[in-house]
Amino acid sequence: MNAQFKKGVLELIVLESVRQKDMYGYELVEEVSKVVDVNEGTIYPLLKRMTNEHYFETYLRESTEGPPRKYYHITAAGILYRDSLERDWNEFNQKVCSFLEEQKRGRE
């Protein structure tokens, strides 16, 4: 997938994933990777920035597999931002698809 496409939609995918349920970092990497190929080096800085922007709150939960895990929980601001990104994405997607269809019809 084109890196610029991925960069543009990554925040929306992360926000939606955490809206569904609180997640810890590696779990989120696995979830997002089902949609776009990402690694921890991409997700963790994004999570830090979005937490600083108050879209997520974090808390620690004990783990049976090692040290406690930091979980991310979406805030009300995060939900509003996610909804805004979805509207923007849908509008952008619709415009691009319409443009491509018009171009295709023009070639026929």
UniProtKB/TrEMBL annotation:
Domain Transcription regulator PadR N-terminal: 14-78
Any Pfam family the entry gives: PadR
Domain of life, source organism: Bacteria
Name of this protein: PadR family transcriptional regulator
Organism: Eisenbergiella tayi
SUPFAM superfamilies: Winged helix' DNA-binding domain
